[in-house]
# Entry
Amino acid sequence: MSEHNDNAQPEGERTPVRIDLQQLLEAVQAHGQKTVDQQDEAAKDGQYDDAILDSSAIAPTDDEGNPVPVTIPIVLAPGVTVVYTTRLGGVSEGDFAHFNLGAKGGDLPERVRRNREALANELHARISLVNQVHSATPVDLDDLYEENAAYGFNASGMRVPGDPVEVDAVDRVSDDGTIQVIDADAQVTTRTGIALGVFAADCLPVLLADPEAGVTAAAHAGRKGLVDGVIDATVDMMVDKGAQRGRIVATLGPAICGDCYEVGDEIADAFDAVFPGTFTLTRFGGPGIDINKAALIALAKAGVDADRVFSSQPRVNAATQYLSHDAELEELCREDNEGDPALAERLGHIRHSMCTLENPLWFSHRRAQLAQKPHEGRMLALIVRR
Ligand SMILES: [Zn+2]
# Structure
């Protein structure tokens, strides 16, 4: 898939290693449900499931040249799956290489469309996207969802080629009537087969479900959204739709960690006043904040039990380890100028695999900034009920 051959290895040595979706799902199910603390301990001890580390070479594109996304699926509850996309397995190039799903950063719309369609195909689900504005506003997707794109529902405020221009069910359209926009930072639904998507490249995706009531939700929880109460508002809407707080399970997606998210004294103090104990001293030496910790505090306040917040880290650790010899990831690290060019070195320096800045599997706005890049791609964290 690469046109960059300067450092190409001989053909025979390029053996892309891919996560086998089914194996990963089975391994996750076998892993059972552990709390965040238990899973983190297990991960520290290197207790990965061997089943998913079995390597198998799968081409990054299919016979027609369509992208084959590398995603990390996690079973959150019976019938409810969370999926994290990575930078791998798409057709975007340059700063957006390879699996960029955001259309606002300057990537070619046609490539974004192809990536999104490939993702919908892989998920066997429709994808729903809204326009994230760092608000605390959730939307009831049951009222709003309408097929308007080849991959599902696009109300994210951008148009990609091939999207129809039907505009009935959305609350705002562009002046020329062609772009559908719903400003919101969380989606809630009782429908099955619809993957609620959160764009992210440092901000925190929070995925929630009450599997008994059949209610799922996805929230975009950046610094501002957390302070303004996006998690509380999302849980409230879930309850309005039949969920019970004590039954809700949740997990936190990839996001910049407290060791890396430097924000300055004033912002860190203000954030810590809302979420006590989230003030950090970053590895860059300045004051920072821990938005993951803040989200856990917000979830507890919203009535989501700590022992029902499951860690995604063991699965992401395993996926990262699994991809440690991936040819595509090696190529990205060589070319992205966002840290050590050697994949083994990059991975060796990771302290938190969920951290977008540290782990080259993820897009990171801050990491791109540090590399003096004008833009970067966006991943999606999704939740879907079957
Ligand atoms: Zn970090």
The chain has twelve helices and 15 strands. Residues 31-385 form a domain with the CNF1/YfiH-like putative cysteine hydrolases fold (CATH 3.60.140.10). The chain has one domain: 31-385.
